[in-house]
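Q: Can someone sanity-check these two? First one:
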Amino acid sequence: MGALAFGAAAAAGAGVLMPTDQRWLANAVLVVAAYAAMPGLLAVPGILLHGCSGLGSIRRAYRLTRLSFLPTALTLAFGVVLVPCAAAWALESGLGLLPGPLATLGWGLVATVLALAITPFQAAVVARQFLHCMAWRTEVHDSDLAHGLPDGPPPRPVRPSLLPAALLPGLLFSGVVLVNPFGWLEVAETNVTESWQPTERSDSSDNDPELRPFDLRDVHPGRGTGLTMVIDGFEDYASLLACPDISCRKTTFTWAEPPNANTDAAPGAVSALLPDGRLLLTTWSHQALRLLTCEADKCVPAPGSRNIARAYYPSGYTGVALAVRKGGGLVVAFADKERVNGDDSPTKDIVSVIFCAEVSCSRPETRHVARLDASAYLPDVHNLAVAMAPGDRPVVARFDTTSGQIHVISCADAACLRPRVTRPVPAYPPGVNDRLGRETGLALVVRADGRPMIAYRDMNDRATKLLDCRTPDCAQADAITLDAGGPYRSTPALVLDRAARPLVAYQNQDGTRLMLATCIGRRCVSTAVARMRGAGEGLAMTMNGQGKPTIAWIDDGGSLFRGEWALMLTTPLSLSAD
């Protein structure tokens, strides 16, 4: 009967939400319905003491409370629901302040104590309120109602020696969780948008930053244990979503590019993490590329900064990537169409490497390193990537969104005086490929021995693959298939962990699981780390301050059709090194 009452209350809330689309009104209806159902708890004593049937005991309970409905429902709501929930919340908050192992052991004990204490407390509240209603209706004292109780000997008191035995299951459970002898996957997950609804953000004013289900660009570890996510939509200004700690239950959401800062609302802001914990972010102003340095809550132009490059092609379709040099300064990879005379003239995709001796990049040095066949490069931040090899040698990777070809540009020296271009993934014939833009980019890392690794989705079969280069120039490479493909999946995310193992985050074939592949040599093991309602359009990964991979992703329940979606953070806590 309680399940039916709960279902009826939930149905009432859903019935209000569907036609009105007002969540607060649905919650109000749900609370009122639950409050109205509270006197139904008095049906339990009616069954035990008077042998009533289920429906009969419910009718009897409401007759008992007919003249004192409001105070009876309030008493039951406090004693059966609010007080136990408040006690559990207080204990949870207190245990959250303890170190991880102590918090786990504490929860094992607290859960046992709560299970032993809450149910008798709730029963006592219900029984006391039932006797009070009976006494009020019959004008007798509570003690005079003892004749209605079952006959029998008085209950034996609980012996204190039984308490350790009662606490033993909680301690055993906590010990198994801490030791994890079977290597079970442990995951910490947060719904970032749970505390502020995306629908409310989409209705915000023009002066507020906005998060939509396709605006996630990147995630970086902040100072301390926090995280910073880069948010940038199509023809919109970039913004920063910062979390003070790894749980990300509290956030700040601020503009990185204020709309009145004379910047272009171009898509695809590119970012890189500086050694001091600040964030480096690209911005466009009248087709000129500039840099911003960002804290968690604000960005300012890099000191002494100037225009780094100027785009001939529209800035939204120009490839840009950043990498910080270990010896200081940074490298900017820049790809744009060459200038030609006449619209019908053949063009090339010119890839340049821009060297900056300092973060401000006040004296950029540009060197053209490749002239590639022109292609319809789409406005996606993942079609160009750059990483630093040993000796501060830049390695650039370019993904052709028309043919699926990958170009790897490597440098034999730090100044890239002798660039070399290889094509480890060949182009597919245009007549075969009719899936323009569905596989949108790549992710690049370089190992300590100088050999690159590239995660991408193959244009031919849409499979998620990891390209393991045998040589520093990637002239020879092995393609490792991680999962079969499906349409409209995000570009995989790729990082190296502290053990120098490549980790690849991607969506599985049917878009219902978030996968994490851990690779050692040419062997990769994939594990499902989260369920998802659908394949969202945002996926990013970083190594947090605790050395764990943190994945930011979009859980899309059909946002194109006004369905619900959420920005999620998933951190696998236990990854086997085998």
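And here is the second, same format, sequence then tokens:
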Amino acid sequence: MLTIGGTAYFKVFAMESIERKELEDGTQIKFRTTNNDIEVYKNDSWSPLFIKGVNLGATLPGEFPGSLPITKDDYLRWFGMIKDMGVNTIRIYTIHKPVFYEALVEFNQRHGEDPLYFMQGVWSPVNLLKEQQDAQSPEVTKAFKEEIKRAVGAVYGDITIPEKDGKASGKYTANAGQYLLAWHLGTEWGPKTVQNTNEQHADAAPVEGDHFKSKPDAAAFDKWLAELLNYTAELEKKHGWEHPMTFTNWVTTDPLEHPKEPLPTEDLASVDATNIETENWKAGYFASYHAYPYYPDFLRLTDKYNDIKNAEGKVDPYKGYLRELKDYHEGMPIMITEFGVPSSLGNAHIGALGRDQGGHTEKQQGKINTDLLNTIYQEDYAGALVFEWQDEWFKKTWNTMSFEEAHSRPDWYNYLSNEMSYGLLGMYPGKEDDIQIDGKQEDWQKLKDKEKQDLTPNMDGWKSITATHDEGYMYITAKLEDDFNPNDENLYLGVNTISGGIKQGGPLQDSKLNEGLETLIRFGKEKESKVLISSDYDYHNQLYEGEKGKVEMSTDTGTFQPWQLPVSLKLEPPHAKYSVPFQEVEVGKLPKGTAGEFDSKDYQPQALWQSKGNVIEAKIPWALLGFSDPSKRNVVSYETHKQETDELKTKKTEGIQFVPWTVQEGSSKATGLSEEPFPVTELPLYKWEPWTKVQYAERKKESYYEMQEAFEQLEEIKK
């Protein structure tokens, strides 16, 4: 009886709670498109509604998205925070577990006529598309239609999906159809797949569906999308509803021409929403794009938009691009369904006006995101959905994936990988809420003995060194015999993980070690505080030697290199339209600051070290210490990289030995390294058991509050 009652609640009672328009044939409609807007039916009339949205991922730290670990309690908690941020619409990319739809209905029942709407995405068969390079192949179309059918059943609570690895499954009984804003089909399309489909099926007949049709001269890929939209409409119509529809598109396959784009593949093929029209579909249809300010490269190289300036009078290529894209889609609404920048130490692309793909504090992330949001709104788009709600640790980044082990990527937080840090809701490593960097040791005293290790060396000048770790960082605190003055001296922590590295020279001054250092942590003046990497261990130089040129590699001269990542590879004809130089950015700098309280709105996770008196405290990202997978104690090895593969060789370390010394300004003496050679191998070894379960701490970033203010200032009902 409880099961029957619960099903009846979701399918009957919930459907009676929200205002909607009934068409002549009895079909229900809540949203519709006009020439420029999405309209909502409310108070017995239609009004333009600006879609203020956020993209919601399907996973948590420690899991790949296919495991769908998010619980109903997670969803309910998040929906409250999302609504408080001023968002009116959530977008999901694929079918979630039944608890998502149950939680959404339950949450919205509490909010009456002011619910949280959602866009239902349908994930395309990406593996089949990549394999066959032909969207119109029967296998691809069949697989996509099967997924559409499952998605419609999930939204309307009318399906049981059998278990399958990497897919949502279960009995769907919650009818969330009244809260659906739109259907959002597909993923970002590969330009070669689009081109091949168009060439292979150049004579494909136009689609003449009951609800969607293609223009006679539409390309084959566009006709395929028209067929899928029509199929979705037919299925939805059976449930007595119509909703607006769209498909995913991005700058790479937009219908515009980008003469300053150096890579031919980025301007190879077009997917054109204007080639599709509705037929007897009152809810309508709109165009949607993922559009970021740093990708593709033409956005920083073009002079096409030099006459388009922002409120500060600066040339704004992103604003110019949005304007041109909007003009092209005249007569239909257009929405930016992904935009944003990450809060990460690492950076992967340079964007105009400082809108890089990374290298931002959380406050900077919020400022840039709000600027992008306002630009989209000012250019008269129908909506804007920021990417994304929560940080996702499983994500890979093109310039860090070479030194990450793919199978365990979700098990640790790589602060250099910007893709992990797009969230407005931070997913922080497990001890982030226990240890706040402030140059004090009170929080260390609260840690259990088994959570920390005493690494105090038998050396003059050091009272104590203590270390601990979590999924993102090595934490170190030290108490010196005398006060540390960063303006007059440098404090070094050499890092030994495996055999090899620098044993003498450079910052070691006249001292020698019996075992080499892979990396070096230097604390001192603001611009001098950073993590450096041994020249013979620097796999950045190894990976990109052919593009950036030979770099000195020596274990005798003490040459430590800045820690760098590429943000642009060297491009030359015929592989590019014109030459683009190799470009790299330094990412090993250690910002000094006081983090504050973890639960505070102003908490600063980017504060990586602080000193007060004779105490120093730091947290160092695992990747800067050479780790490819700290959960297994794996580091990048010294084995020569093979140029035919991007993957670096790795090996397991027994642990870490930290070699401490100080150098006074103007001195040639490494204080503390008195023995000759200094016995690194006799120092305490920081060792930990590999982990399989991830601990993390959830917190709204400072960017959340920036976006909250920006959303509140926008007129939701457009005038």
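A (reply): Looked at the second one. The domain at 21-427+698-713 is CATH 3.20.20.80 (TIM Barrel). Confidence is low (pLDDT under 50) at residues 1-15.
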